[in-house]
Amino acid sequence: MNPQVPLGECVPPSTQYAVSVSLPMWEDNVDYEKGDSRVVDRMVSGYPRFFIAKPIQALVTVVKDKFALPNETAMIFPSLKCADRCVAFIYDQAPKQQGKGLEYVLPRPGQVRIVTHVVEPINKKAAALDATTNVLQVPVAIYCVLFPEDLFPLAKQYWQHTGDGISARLADHCLHIARVNEEFEQETIPFSSPNIGGACRRKQGSGYHRTPSSVTSPSSSTVSTPVARSLLPAAGKSTEAAKGDSSLFSETKIEADTFVEERFGRNLSLKYSTNMKAALRRRIAGALSEEEQKQGAQVERGVAGLSADEVFVATTGMGAIFQAHQALLRTGRGKSVCFGFSYTDTLKVLEKFGPGAYFLGHGEGADYDELEQILDRHATSSEEEPILAIFTECPSNPLLKTADLSRLRSLADRYGAALVVDETIGSFPNVDVLSWADIVVSSLTKVFSGDSNVMGGSIVLNPNRAHYARLRATMDAEFEDLLWCEDAVFLERNSRDFMSRVPQINANALAVAQLLAASPKVIQVNYPKFTTPANYELIKRKTADAGYGGLLSVVFAGGESASRIFYDSLSCCKGPSLGTNFTLASPYTILAHFTELDWAAKYGVSPHLVRISVGLEPHNELLAMFQSALDAIPA
């Protein structure tokens, strides 16, 4: 099993661009939510929509030095549309949220603004010799939203809810270009010397060479540790002075990673990123290559006429949900319904963007009747628009409930609503939700990637549904391919063995769920086999390898005390995220709903719930680890 990763370090350990961070003790999670410096000052990583990655922090410092007025900070986006939406969100939400726990001065017209910054090497000839083929030669535009510092919480909400921010790899690319440009200028500017008149001097060994496996920058660690998730450096510390702070990775580690990637050829050249995105779309659609067919791979979506053209790859899983919602809003103006207790930011997207949403958080029983009443009321009202869409997760996170998709489909058809299903937890080797849905969204960050070192999301349109033509036209016209080329490289590489990993994870998770369910110290195990099982069996694929996924959650008879002991005793990685190739645990409710624990409890989400994402470790070792943690709880 994985040894205990020190507080604040990357999960998995020593992984550049890791999407999780170690919070090994229950109290670490509580203190993180409180903003305690004991925890936040030690964090070198975090989930990218919640923790602004170190390279992005460094790039923000560069942007502020170039463009910001006093007492301003910035958010950076990969497109003008993203930046425009951020500006609109700040102006829309500022009056709505003022005084509700946030204190700031309402922004004046034009005070929140966008600056376009083009990143391009000065010396094109040197860039042409770069090992990453032509990446450095291509200008890259980033879009910087500048605003007063006290509006940072609002901008951060937009970053978190939509997943629109730039990736850490893109930020490192921009920082690298800035560094090599500075080096080039320093090397070629004439200077005076008592011995060398006005001669030009060039340092030996400098240039534009980078390795294809990662875009790294010595500037990755030039910003001090953030205070309370702020983009700003520590008070009183300049960027230059911060260079001595602890870095994410040593140069030795980066060089070692580079050697492994190049020596064993796991990554393709970045110049093939377009081809890799096409491969990702085919993989998600279930279209197999000739080689995959020879190897006996089977990916069956169960939808006639589906092709890779119906798949759109987003930069994050929440980005996929947000973009799907945006596309729907361009086809209608009604509210949406969030059916079941979904991941926290899904509900926030539905509530804060557009006309709002209804939340039916139990996702079973009387909620179906209430959903029908809402649909009928809006369909017959002269004052309200028809319901736009029904959003649900199959299964849900963290309660692992599965909605009755047959019933939701019938209601959606009767009242003209779209049905949007998030399949992240189930994953398409296990479940067929596309047959029922208009749109299927998923986080590719999770089990599809598995390695916990890259973000991504997908949107799949069902070509056989009534909303398809309008949705497809909207997506073709409006969707932006913003997945950075290096992120595409890692998503493609990581997902090559996706189909073979899922059955192993299924088997491990089922064994762990059964072990926990048999313990008298446990009062509830949330797992698709045990939770709303009839609904799950309806969508479970009929293949031999299909199972119940790798996620489960557990509530203990001893309440918070038992949860703390169990969590602290686990010898696996502990931190945010799920779907990793290694087992990962978190006190989910503490991390996702710390300021609304009572509200979450009303929907059956215990504040003491422990969520477990089971990985690929040896079966017996996993069971021994969980039994040991159970044994640590007093009888």
TrEMBL record:
Give the start-end ranges of region Disordered.
Answer: 202-226
Record key words, sorted: Pyridoxal phosphate, Transferase
GO biological process terms held by the UniProt record: transsulfuration
Checking SUPFAM superfamilies in the record gives: PLP-dependent transferases
GO terms for MF? cystathionine gamma-synthase activity; pyridoxal phosphate binding
Cofactor requirements of the protein: pyridoxal 5'-phosphate
Q: Name the domain of life.
A: Eukaryota
User: InterPro entries from the entry?
Assistant: Cys/Met-Metab_PyrdxlP-dep_enz, PyrdxlP-dep_Trfase, PyrdxlP-dep_Trfase_major, PyrdxlP-dep_Trfase_small, Trans-sulfuration_enzymes
Record's protein name: Cystathionine gamma-synthase
Organism per entry: Coemansia interrupta
